[in-house]
Structures are given as C-alpha cells and as structure tokens.
Amino acid sequence: MDFNDSPGEAAYRAKVRTWLDANATLRDPDAPKGNMLDEPDGDLIEKAKAWQLKKYEAGWACLRWPKEYGGQKASAMESVIFSQEESRYDLPPSIYGIGHGMLGPTIMAHGTDEQQERFLRNMAMGDEVWCQLFSEPDAGSDLAGLKTKAVKDGDDWVINGQKIWTTGAQYCRWGMLVARTDPNAAKHAGLTYFIVDMEVPGVEIRPIKQMSGASGFNEVFFTDVRTPDENRLGAVGDGWGVAITTLMNERSSIGSSLGGGAGIRDLIKLAQQVELNDKPAIEDGGVRRRIADFAVRRSGLKYTGQRGLSALSQGQTPGPEASIGKLVAAISGLEMGAFGMELQGAAGVLTGEDGPADPAWQRTYMGMPGLRLAGGTDEILRNIIAERVLGMPGEPRVDKGKPFKDIPSGTTR
Amino acid sequence: MNFDFSEEQKLLQHSAREYLGEHSTLAHVREVFETDADYSRDLWKGIAELGWLGVAIPEDYGGAGYGYLELAVIAGEIGRSLAPIPFGSTAYLAAEAITRAGSEEQKKKYLAGIAEGDLIGTLATTEKAGMLSQQSVNATFTDGVVSGTKVPVADGTAADFVVVLAREGDGHSLVIVDLDAAGVERKRLGALDPTRPQVELTFKGTPATRLGNPGQGWKLTQDMLTRAAVLMAFEQLGSADRAFQVTFDFTMSRYAFGRPVASFQSLKHRMADLYADREIARSNCYWAAWALENDDAELPIAAASAKISASDALEHTTVEMIQMHGGVGFTWEYDCHLFYRRAKALSHTLGTTDEWREKLVTRLIEQVA
Q: Phi and psi for A129 in degrees, rounded to 5?
C-alpha cells in the first residue's frame, strides 16, 4: 500500500513539471473557483487553442493517442500525471475534453484509414474543436430514443432534427452526431453515426441559459443539413454500437477532482466565524456531526479516485467502484452548499462578493443540480451500479423489439 | 371537533387562488425576477383593494378585523403563486408588530396605510452572518435616534418603514424608522431570489420611535418571529404544493423508454415521500394556526414545528422538482429554479431551520422539566 509515485512515475512527473514551469505560471490556490459547467468566452477560446498548440508542438498533446495522430502512446497513468500537474497552473479551461477524450478515440476505433488521416491530427493540434451531438429534447436518459433523421440522397445524407445540451457548439468546427436512419427497425437498430461539419448551411445554434445564470450548452437545429457519406462513421444501422464506444470513454475521468468549489477546510473556517447560540457554530454538536459526515464522504471519494489511479499505475483497468464518483459527489456537494448557507443565517441568500457572507456556498447550491443530471442522471447511475456492477436483474422493458415508430415518446400535453 | 378551516375560509382560499391564478402567473413572477423590479406594483395594488393586507388588522384601525386563520389561508395562496410582493414582511411582521405592541398613535399612523397598500414595512434584526442573538446586536437607540447597520433586510428596497431591533441602555428595544427620515442609507444587495430583495440599511442618527416598552425589544422580536413563522409556514407549504403539482404533471406526461417517467418506481416512491413531508407540514401548520388564533401556551412549539416541517417540505420538493424534470429542470427557461430560489429565500427568513430546531428543543425541554 503506497500512495507515492513509483520511481518511473516520479521521473515522469519531474519531466512534466519542468516543461510546465517553463511554459506556464502557477495558479493562486486562494482564487475563487468557477462552476464546473460554465462555458469559456471568445478570448478564453483563443487562449485555449494557443495552449493546445503549444502542447502539441512540444509533444504533450493527446498523450494517450498513437504517435501517428499526434500523441505519445503514453500510459493511462502518465496521462493522469500530466493532468494533475497541469491543473496546478493558471491556464485557460480545456475545451478539448469531449473531442480528445471521447470523439477522437471513437474515430480511432471505428473510422476508416482515410477518416483517421483527415481528422485526428488536426483534432490534436486543437485549431478545430469538436462537439458531441447525441441528446435530444425527447432523448436524454433514453438516448436510443433519438429522432433526428438522416435520409440518403445521392452521395449525401440529409439531416433534419434537433440536438440539445451540446457543450461548445458555438465554437466547434465539427460534431459527431447519431441519427435515425430506419424508423421501422427496433429502437437501437435503426441508428447511424455521422461526422458533421458545423459550418455548413442549415445548422442553427442557440445557447441555453442555466438556472444559475451561466450559459454552458446549446440547442442545435438541423434543417436539411447535408453530410457526405464519406463522413459516416461505421456501417449504416451500427450507430448505437459506435455511440457506445463514445460513451464508454466518458468514464475515464479518474483522478479529476469532482469536488471543486468550497471544501471541508472552508466549512470549518465558516463554522468558526459564525455564531450559533452565542458561541462559534463549530462548538455545536449538530454542526460537528454534519461536518464529520461531509468529511467522510470527501475522503472516501478522494481515495476511491486513488484506487483507480493505483489500478492504472499497475497497468490494470480501474474497478467498478469508480462508478460511484459522480453519484456521491453531486448529492453530497449539494448538501454541503445548503449547509454552508444555513450556517450563514439570513445572509446565506446573498450573492454578492462584498457582503457579510461568502457566496461560494450558494453558488454550489445553484450549480450542483446540474451535476446530478449531466453525464448520466443519479437515477441512471444507480441503475448502472445495480444492474451492471452488482448484476441485479434489469427492469422489464415495454419498448423492446418494437418498431421505433410505434413507441410513445416525448411529452404529451 | 373540527380541525379544518371553515366554509367561509375555504371560500376565501378559493377566491384568492383564482385571483392569483390570473394576476400572479409564473410568467409574471419571472418578469419581476428578470427585470429586477423588486416587486409587482400592480399586484400589490390589486391585493390591497381586495383587503388582504388588512385581513388581520382590527376594524378600528382600518382593517377587515378577521383573524389569523384568514391570513393563513391567504398566505398559502401567496406561496402557491410565488407572488412577487412584500406581503409577508408587511402583513406577518410589520403590521402584526404594530397591532400587538404599538401605541395608539402608532396604530393610527401606520395600520390604515398598511391596510390600504400605501405603506410597506419590514423587520431588521441581523447585522452579520450567523444566528441572531442578543449579543450580535450592535445598533443603538439613544435620545430618539438609531445608529448602526442592519444586514440583510428582506424587502428593504420597497419598504417605507422598518421595525428595527436595537440596543437601548443595558437591554434591547424595538423601534420604528420611517425610511425617508434623515441619516438613512439603503444599499441593495444581490439576492438568490430577486423577488425577495435584500438590502443593507445604515442609520446615522436617524429619528425613530420606540415600539413597546424600553428593554422589551428581544422578547417582542421573539414573539413577532413566532407569530410570523406560522404564517410563513403556510406560505412555504403553498409553494411546496404548487411545486409538487407541477412536478407531478410533468412526470405523468413525459415519456422515456416507452412509458411515462411517473411509472418508474424510484420516482413513485420519492413522490410518496414528498407527499408525506407535505402532510406532516400541513398538520403542523394547522396546529400552529389554531394555537395562534387561540393564543395558546403551545404556540412557540407549534410555530417552530410548522416552520421547520414546512421549510423541509419545500426544500425537498424543490430539489426533487429539478431532478425529476431531467435536464430541462436545470435551465433558466423552465420554472423549477423559481421555486428552488424561493425555497431558500423563505427558509432563511425569520431565522434558519436550524435556529428553529434550537428554539423547538429548548421549549420541549421546558415542557419536560
């Protein structure tokens, strides 16, 4: 049982640090942290692209990718080490998580040689950003219920429909889209996967404002959008299988801090500052119990992440315990935000930075509901744990085997 | 034995619901929210004309001379519609304080104006983050003037006058300050629920008149908070009922995996739990309303129980409301966050839920001794 780097890992980390020290400045640890789902604006996009190009030219981009596509064929552990070190520096937020983490690997797994040649190196260089066009207003948790249509017309496919929750659509050049190509087939069987040029006529992007006031994602409308058959990824009707590859890669955020925002230290400091029954709140038994419970969750999540890293370090795949991360972190984060607000009393509802109460807790309270829904809702995650990890029987399905067009969907009024 | 509202009170509830259903739609609430309007002036005028502000004010002072049960019924409908008006601050707190502890002159000066909708009032107690305590009050009242800073003060943007808790000599007194008097600084603060605006009030030698007797301030404040808590609990319950209904309607009509999401057992169980939370709150609210109307010795316990259970019910319901709506629940465009924000605004008003738990247990211990 050893939490330290192996000698090889330590050497790699030192190499990473040397390069980062020479090319970036360290972040101020006391600076306020933004909300996880916030979107960067125009200036930050340019900075993010510049940073990506710098990494690419120095051989630090897309570390896990094969060398012929601009990567270093590094191990998962090395990639994690680089991310850990990178997060200590004051750098623009990454806009490549989806592209490099999920979409690139999908092209590697399912693309033709020609598609891999055409797209991957450019993706690694970062000048073209990619977005994922899966979810729809009527197909969130039930993703296979999607309805955006693609109809063959000569050498092209004509796409009509609507996607939603598309992070980064407004600054992305390419998107990867799943569409229904056969409504008479069963739900999972009539789908096909396409690479789509976001700059062709017929693509309309509308930002969606989040309940916190930030703008994190978009609706994307497709009206007679043409995409050439050479941009189809995988066979006609195999779209679900290709989508699964994309979604499987979503799980690889080991070592990333899901906490963010204010933590246990901040909670204790707050409880020391404010009063309850004429004494510092930290002296109250009820407050102490809750802080203990939050601390246990936090450390449990942190070391679950460490177990995953340990597996990577040993060249193994992380175990299923990794699947608890977002489920536990989101709900616990929400409760902590509410508790911080509660300690602040009447001032807990103030949003200003210059008032009597630090608004970090209230920002967490406004942001955490999004984390319980994005990237798999709490409910879906619980089903995954119960059915795929624990092996409990799945729910009986009413839509299995039926032609897609015969399955009720959407919202009846 | 009739532990329910009377037929007349139910009629009042029905007509209040109809009125607010038309004049305080969620679209209207959103408009006030998004334009930072502080409150809806039209709605305020409308409910004043209906006599709601004077419902519990004695007829001698311009009110309708009904009682707390009628006010409770209206409070519930205010909550149900998320009405963006400083009703609670004015009716549950300021009017009540003056009715109970005001001199003849003060009652004549303020109550009729309140009943007609011409005067908006609020309460100012806290001066920093954390629980309100006697020690935490530093504002002073000496020689007829009040000095100090109060923060946050709910509905402080719209208020014409404010009831302020201040030190006087060795103890505390409640005083009334007209906000157009000299030496008043009002600073608007950002608030989670902009339809419940918050301000910082600074008094520099501002003329004020004492409410009640010198040194009675702390006791009067606790008394005011207890009584207002009952009415606020009804308002919170009304919001919880509405949030639940919207969520129910959504889950019944939304399909996924070929069936309504309401057919999934996980949601059914949680909706049943929310139902139980609300009925516990409702029963505690009825008990507290009865205790308030009859000035019963159990009022402090009943009021605390109502406030705690209603705050919990509303908070749980609004969290589940977002979650059960799926992704759209997290958007600005959908109404879920209006309820989510209001839930926090109300559970941080009159004292937090943990403060009320403290008060409840203190009283329960007294009963056992």
A: -105, 150
Give chain A's radius of gyration (CA, Å): 23
The verdict on B358 touching A (C-beta cutoff 8 Å) is yes
Point out the residues of A that are catalytic: 250
Q: Does B272 touch chain A (CB under 8 A)?
A: no
Radius of gyration of chain B measured on its C-alpha atoms: 20
Q: Does A279 touch chain B (CB under 8 A)?
A: no
Q: Model confidence over B292-339: pLDDT tens digits? A: 999 999 999 999 999 999 999 999 999 999 999 999 999 999 999 999
Q: Are B54 and B70 in contact (CB under 8 A)?
A: no
- Answer whether B264 sits within 8 Å of A379, measured CB to CB: yes
Cβ-nearest to B189 among A278, A350, A407: A350
Residues 193-212 in A contacting B (C-alpha not used; CB under 8 Å): 208-211
Q: How many CB atoms lie within 10 A of CB B49?
A: 11
Rounded to 5 degrees, what angle do the CA atoms A80, A81, A87 make?
A: 90
How many C-alpha atoms does A207 have within 13 Å on its Cβ side? 15
**pLDDT digits 0-9 by tens, B156-208:** 999 999 999 999 999 999 999 999 999 999 999 999 999 999 999 999 999 99
Calpha distance A51→A94 (Å, rounded): 9
**B198 vs A contacts (CB less than 8 Å):** 349-350
> DSSP character for A28?
P
Task: Determine the 3-state secondary structure of A147 from DSSP.
Answer: coil
| Chain position carrying tokens 């601009």 | A70
Residue of B nearest to A164 (CA): B327
Probe site for chain A from B155, B348, B362 (most A CB atoms < 10 A)? B348
What residue in B sits closest to A398 (Cα-Cα)?
Answer: B258
DSSP state of A167: E
A43-70, pLDDT tens digit by residue? 889 999 999 999 999 999 999 999 998 8
- The CA distance from A302 to the nearest CA of chain B, in Å, is 25
State the sign of the Cα–Cα–Cα–Cα dihedral B321, B323, B327, B331: positive
| Residue of B30, B125, B131 to mutate, interface with A, max A Cβ within 10 Å | B131
Length of chain B: 369
Task: List phi, psi (to 5°) of B72.
Answer: -65, -40
A228 phi and psi angles, rounded to 5 deg: -70, 150
In sequence order, what are the residues at sequence separation of 6 or more whose Cβ sits closer than 8 angstroms to the Cβ of residue B339? Answer: B82, B239, B242, B243, B246, B317, B318, B321
Report the alpha-carbon distance of residue B89 to residue B122 in Å, rounded.
5
CATH architecture of B218-368: Up-down Bundle (1.20)
Distance between A379 CA and the closest CA of chain B, angstroms: 8
B337: Cα within 13 Å, side-chain hemisphere: 26
Q: Give the minimum alpha-carbon distance from B127 to chain A in angstroms, rounded to a whole number.
A: 9
Residue type, B140: T
Shortest Cα distance, chain B CAs vs residue A195, angstroms = 25
Domain limits, chain B: 7-119, 122-214, 218-368
Superfamily name with CATH number, domain B122-214: Butyryl-CoA Dehydrogenase, subunit A, domain 2 (2.40.110.10)
**ipTM given for this complex:** 0.95
The CATH label, of 1.10.8.60, 1.10.540.10, 1.10.1240.10, 1.10.3210.10, for the domain at B7-119 is 1.10.540.10
Q: Which domains does chain A show, CATH number per domain?
A: 12-95 (no CATH), 130-251 (2.40.110.10), 264-376 (1.20.140.10)
Q: How far apart are CA A344 and CA A271, in angstroms?
A: 9
**DSSP H helical ranges for chain B:** 7-23, 26-34, 41-49, 68-80, 87, 96-101, 104-115, 217-253, 265-293, 299-325, 336-347, 353-368
In terms of residues, how long is chain A? 413
Cα separation, B146 vs B166, in Å, equals 8
